[in-house]
Design goal:
single chain; 47% helix
């Protein structure tokens, strides 16, 4: 692994930890040349299904775009980055578990909505307003009512 500070090709692994249930290995590394430490993550790379957009065009799944949209919906909300990453992991696992080569973007949006509803109700409303293309205050009112109804069922 190349050192991100001095570009030295030879770095040493100081500590390794596996994150149970997520197939991620965290490694603390040290560069013998500049003596700096950094963390790397190893993740099993499995093929994600291609996404089919509303217009029929196809695109590759992009985890960064998924996390970015969730982060935007949760901006200035009391939700830790680790919780967003864990939600993205759960969405990816569900998509892989489908075993399909292609999937509609609307299914991904539904999975995001479910995860946001668990994380933060305001983030859920924010995401829903864009995802469902809200055009009036009544649309917001219906979404708030949905959240309240789900809360009572629990």
């Amino acid at each position: 692994m190349r050192c991100p500070f001095c570009a030295n090709e030879d770095t040493q692994v100081v500590d390794t930890r596996s994150n149970e249930g997520t197939n991620v290995i965290r490694r603390r590394r040290k560069c013998p040349k500049c003596d700096k430490r950094f963390t790397t993550y190893e993740r099993v790379e499995l093929r994600m299904p291609r996404l089919v957009k509303k217009g029929g065009s196809r695109t590759d799944f992009d985890r960064e775009k998924l996390v970015g949209s969730m982060t935007l919906a949760l901006r200035k909300r009391p939700v830790a980055t680790e919780e967003i990453d864990a939600a993205a992991d759960r969405i990816e696992e569900k998509l892989r578990a489908l075993g399909e080569r292609e999937i509609q973007t609307s299914r991904v949006g539904d999975l995001v909505m479910r995860e946001l509803a668990k994380l933060d109700k305001i983030g859920y409303i924010r995401f829903a307003s864009v995802y469902r293309s809200f055009e009036s205050p009544d649309d917001f009112r219906e979404a708030v009512q949905e959240v309240k109804t789900k809360k009572r069922r629990k």
